[in-house]
Amino acid sequence: MAAMTPTAPDVTPESAARAAARPTTPARTRRRPRVWRGLVLGLGGAYFLVPLIASFVFTVHTPGQGVSFEAYTALLSADGFTQSLLLSLGLAAATIALALLLAVPALVAVRLGAPRLRPVVEVMCMLPLVVPPIALVTGISTVLRWGPDHLSRTPLYQTFIAVQNEDFPFVLVLAYTVMALPFVYRSLDAGLRAVDVPTLVEAARNCGASWPYVMLRVILPNLRSSLAGAAFLTLALVLGEFTIASILGFRPFAVWIVSISGAQARMSVAVSLLSLVITWLLLLVLSRAGTAQTGTPGAPRTSRKES
After folding, report:
1. What is the DSSP letter of 28?
2. d(Cα 224, Cα 228) in Å, to the nearest integer?
């Protein structure tokens, strides 16, 4: 046994002195900030901020008259401002709800039961990127004109009339949902790839959980960031979309901004800046909702100690 035991190497005073004389290097060295990084960030910030600052100066400064905020104070009393803004926000909320309601169950079902159909679903969801919005709205308008003429004696006639209601045109929600599918799919697919969905579902089902409980309390909390990202992109798309709403004859916020640009240039620029601020605030709320820390589903809660 003694012969098999390895012996430590002999340490001589000379080797110990050489080891002590060696300069020690820190484990991690801090990298000095490079100049070109700051230059790139500065150029990027100027690219976005300079046009916004110039637009703001244009709205508040009148040559020969000084500074005036009349363009912003007149927004609240402008004809159609409140109605168009509320309409766009309502369309955005309905589009987000419909897109997630269609995409989440479909992608979860494909991941659990039919993984081979994933390429097919991906191609179908990516088709709106290939079809231009002008072609999409041309097909929608053709169907809307064809429906009342050929379905006037059927119950579907009232459906064609209802989806074109000017107070809330649901046909825009359907069109925006199709346009948002690529972004919703990419966001949800990335979230599902990062989560072991089959294991979570199997564990929940073995514990006696129903399918609605599994979807609401097990899968959706793990997809919080992906859901917020999908809502983030859909909201930005709906608030900035102009082509489809303009051709179909509706007047959401983006169309209203363009309609007043010819008569009231300063107000149109002011409302454009205001729309950017509103969009940024809404996107900030969605991003905070997606990164909010929540307890792990099923984790035991710690109770306070009784005094």
Report:
1. S
2. 6
- Report the distance separating Cα 27 and Cα 197, nearest Å: 39
Q: Are 165 and 238 in contact (CB under 8 A)?
A: no
Task: Name, in order, each residue with C-beta under 8 angstroms of 247's C-beta and a sequence gap of 6 or more.
Answer: 134, 137, 138, 141
User: Which residues touch 302 (CB under 8 Å, ≥6 apart)?
Assistant: none
Confirm if 86 and 99 have CB atoms less than 8 A apart: no
* Range 86-92, long-range pairs (CB < 8 A, 24+ positions): 87/168, 87/251, 87/252, 87/253, 88/238, 88/239, 88/252, 88/253, 88/254, 90/168, 91/168, 91/169, 91/172, 91/173, 91/176, 91/238, 91/252, 92/234, 92/235, 92/238, 92/239
> What tokens does 61 get?
């400064």
In terms of pTM, does the model score above 0.90? no
**Mind listing the pLDDT tens digit for each residue in 71-109?**
777 777 778 888 888 999 999 999 999 999 999 999 998
Q: Which amino acid is at 266?
A: R
Q: 66: which DSSP letter?
A: E
Return the closest-CA partner of residue 218 out of 299, 118, 133: 299
The rounded radius of gyration (Å) of the Cα atoms in the chain is 30
CB 100 within 8 A of CB 247: no
Helix (H, G, I), strand (E, B) or coil at 62: strand
Amino acid present at 64: G
Bridging pattern class, strands 61-62 and 66-67: antiparallel
Q: Which pair of tokens denotes residue 247?
A: 């051709």
